[in-house]
What we know:
Two copies of one chain form a homodimer.
Chain A: H1 2-15, H2 20-33, H3 43-48, H4 97-107, E1 112-114, H5 117-127, E2 136-137, H6 140-149, E3 151-153, E4 159-161, E5 169-170, H7 172-177, E6 184-187, E7 193-204, H8 207-215, H9 223-228, E8 235-243, H10 260-269, E9 274-280, H11 286-302, E10 307-313, H12 325-337, E11 346-348, H13 359-372, E12 377-380, H14 401-408, E13 416-419, E14 423-426, E15 431-434, E16 443-444, H15 448-456, H16 468-494
Parallel strand pairs in A: 1-6, 9-10, 9-12, 10-11, 12-13
Antiparallel strand pairs in A: 2-8, 3-4, 5-8, 6-7, 7-8, 14-15, 14-16
Helix pairs in contact in A: 12-16, 13-14
Amino acid sequence: MAAREARRAALRVGAASLIPSRAAASAAATFASSSSASSSPSQLASRFSFSSRPLRFLHHHHHPPMPPPPFLVRSPPPRAALLQPDGGLLVDVVVPSAERASKLAEAQHLPQLSISRIDLEWVHVVSEGWASPLRGFMRQSEYLQSLHFNCLRLQDGSIVNMSVPIVLAIDDAQKESFGPSSAITLVGPSGNLVAILRNIETYKHNKEERIARTWGTTAPGLPYVEEAITQAGNWLVGGDLEVLEPIKYNDGLDHYRLSPAELRKEFERRNADAVFAFQLRNPVHNGHALLMTDTRRRLLEMGFKNPVLLLHPLGGYTKADDVPLAWRMKQHDKVLGEGVLDPETTVLAIFPSPMHYAGPTEVQWHAKARINAGADFYIVGRDPAGMGHPTEKRDLYHPDHGKMVLSMAPGLERLNILPFRVAAYDKSQRKMAFFDPSRAEDFIFISGTKMRNFAKNGENPPDGFMCPGGWQVLVDYYKSLAAEESKAAKEHLVV
Amino acid sequence: MAAREARRAALRVGAASLIPSRAAASAAATFASSSSASSSPSQLASRFSFSSRPLRFLHHHHHPPMPPPPFLVRSPPPRAALLQPDGGLLVDVVVPSAERASKLAEAQHLPQLSISRIDLEWVHVVSEGWASPLRGFMRQSEYLQSLHFNCLRLQDGSIVNMSVPIVLAIDDAQKESFGPSSAITLVGPSGNLVAILRNIETYKHNKEERIARTWGTTAPGLPYVEEAITQAGNWLVGGDLEVLEPIKYNDGLDHYRLSPAELRKEFERRNADAVFAFQLRNPVHNGHALLMTDTRRRLLEMGFKNPVLLLHPLGGYTKADDVPLAWRMKQHDKVLGEGVLDPETTVLAIFPSPMHYAGPTEVQWHAKARINAGADFYIVGRDPAGMGHPTEKRDLYHPDHGKMVLSMAPGLERLNILPFRVAAYDKSQRKMAFFDPSRAEDFIFISGTKMRNFAKNGENPPDGFMCPGGWQVLVDYYKSLAAEESKAAKEHLVV
């Protein structure tokens, strides 16, 4: 335990610097250079990751020497102990079953507010403690801290990360309908009573400012904005949640929706002494798998006895052209079933948050929520939570900003950030491998778009790109999509 | 000293809370309620300030009890000791005169970059340590921290506030012209060699993202954006400054431009045991003066023996319809000369920063810079650094957000924030007085626009609104403006 803390402290020194991105780069470079496939400089490689920058670029003579690179540290294996949740206690605001009847009776007599599917996803997120120590929708002081500082200050003066505002929008009529009541009842999309929101505070919803400060643009066409903000009301209502029963979606996937408490139990049951989390919203190809397998190998080399992977697809709102959750889960199942990832050391579960596509701002939320689930290592890729600019021909965010911001974010000091090493299809080995810039001509980069086009057109990707069962799921998905489209087109003709 | 620290610690408890705005409101309410002119609830008053909210609104039963209100604390007078600068040491990057000749010789052989008047103002700001511990234009890691977190993390893990990016934009050709040199010479608007920028780092200038995250809007018409960003290059260059000689403007006002070190000396010379700063970019009317005088009275009541006012007009770039610096300084001189403010306990100096008009983001910079000059109390008003929305008929920022954000800002915990009490013209007393909502009909609010219109039209404001000499300066300014405009119109006719 002490050794583990000491190592974490050593890692923190890197972040605790006016030049933390350099420290992170140093750690990353070391991470990369201890592997087989690295690493002379290359424009192509630096396009993807700073993990292959050579060390000699990292020492400016005016900067103090870097701390020892974390992945060269050898120390005795630590004892198993999961990272504490933010604020010390995992929030759980689901009403205990003994109190359910009386709370439900109370809820029936409070002013009611109908909420959307995305609002419900946020209730779910808060209810299980992913956003600990937040206990409800943000009041104004929390909202302002999130918007301006990406973090919240607690009573004891400590800081927790909180980069994305978790807020509930209402319009004038809804605000009026609350009357003088200090509590309201939230009614879900299917008409059931979901939660009581107590000690409410209403305040102005300045959408333009919220969008600008969260996304760094106000260009039209941001998916979450169009889905959940543009048409929303001009007020926000904050308060403390009491959720009447655990949130379920009855879509056949609820058993994958493990709460942070359930995940912690599972990690303990498996005697994990390190938990490394991988956030994704895409099918897993063998490059991802290589990265995860290799991360485990290195953690073992560092002295951990049983590092466990949290394979953690995002399950809330995603944009229309992402592969739907149900198909992704089928694909992930195949990846485990066909042994590409080891089921013994992998926990597959769904992260219930909706997706903002807010790049460097959102990646902090993705990482912070995993601390609350007990993860102490977080793998971050190129342009996390990014997308194309909605109106210009460029990426919305600089591809390196996500990992840089993550490595510097207040409240995430305890989390070890592992920058993604870029994998590509190695024609010489006919498999996915870490990109080696010294023989760049051997590699093919297969983007998400290219992958989707293969599957749509019924073409096969190169052998070894993805396990056959996983690939078949994708082919089936795009076939079903084509069938639906053709059916819709026919119906349109009939009308 | 110990007593002072204890009192500061007590004040910090208020800020160190998930609900700091309430704590700040509590402190403010107490501040207000210990005065004669307060304070039953009123819509009119709450429009201006949360300092007159009654205490009973501030205690939600789910929140822990508030810390003791700071302005009721009575303790023995502290010993004089100015607040430490951010980072512990006041930055001074002006080259010592003994080294000037050799640095100048070196500067003549480096690649040269012409900088604008605003760039020069930032060089000035950094050179004297207003932005301590920043030693130059921001590199990317500092820029990203400023943009996302409004603060920088130092080597020792501590946090300093830094809400406004201090950056230098260059275009492709300028970037090319640097070649492989790690240092460049900055050339001022008048052609003189200003500074060497060392260990430079160039990185992308994503203007849209910078504007959105700094101003919370990307609407066209933001003054600083139009003046300094829209036409600027697509790269930023960061590095450490060595400024070849102290920055002077030779406009007859340089003697007012006291550096943080000079201000600290002046406060020590006067044996100040508290320094309270008032940032402004407008003429001082008697309402301002009342506020400043009253603040001193309360600080005396608290046990301070010699609180000194730093009357600190902003002297860098301001928008076209603000009163120019030279006229404002004339006006401020009259206010002191006619005894409205006491010259014995007031230091009048110019703050050399340019103005962003970025509301809650910028007010943090205004406060942080004054810590570096030794201030430990900061007076904040309604809608600080705010302006009208450039394209919509509303204020750009919520008028209370400035003081709320300031009271919660990371790195400003040491500074005591004093929310502005609203003063208005009291017809019954024929003078400016703190607004008393119980007899609202006695008061007239005279906005900046109304004041300017009086002066423009040669009308007199009500007796007691401003000292006669100060008012005359304003009348003269608008006369000179009218004369210039008529001259310009005539010249236009001749052409």
